[in-house]
Amino acid sequence: MSNPFLTKVFHFNAAHQYGHNDWSAEKNWEVFGPDSKVHGHNYILEVMVTAAVNPETGFMVDLDEVKGYCKKICN
Amino acid sequence: MKLKDIVKKYVIDILDHSQFEIEVDWFKDKQPSTENLVKFIWTQIDQRLKPVVLHRIRLHETPSIFTDYYGPVRNEF
Predict the structure, then answer these.
(1) What pLDDT was estimated at residue A66?
(2) How far apart are CA B46 and CA A58, in angstroms?
(3) Domains, chain A, ordered by start
(4) Residue numbers in A near B23 (CB within 8 A)
(5) Does B73 touch chain A (CB under 8 A)?
(6) Minimal Cα–Cα distance from B58 to chain A, Å?
(7) Which of A28, A63, B8, B71 could form a disulfide with A19 if both were Cys (CB 3.0 to 4.6 A apart)?
(8) What value of ipTM does the predicted structure carry?
(9) Quick one: closest CA in B to A44, which residue?
């Protein structure tokens, strides 16, 4: 039986600039256009993972505080 | 360590409010594209998630563009 897939979403903002230092500004503009200027994005990151589900918690092993939970019920 | 904490420490804290092609060594000699960002993010968290398996990184750069990456083994031509 295959394991489920879980996705967690994160956000970050960052700036970047395309181009090569050893190219002229004109060549960088020709290749990269407006992206050759510093600009920013509001990135959205989705991290999708898969693992076996712990039958006692219903969660994927080690994804959350499963270690603490196991310690508690195992002792 | 939780998934949330791993991604925060090894990805978000490094990239957020940065100009990453200048500030992050991994981008030296690479263009700061979403294609390269997903590869960087994969290398930052893949091994640290064990035994959970990282399946896919999806990064939205704008509302109309996102890039998917399934790791270095698959889809390399």
Answers:
(1) 47
(2) 23
(3) 5-74 (3.30.479.10)
(4) none
(5) no
(6) 5
(7) A28
(8) 0.90
(9) B60
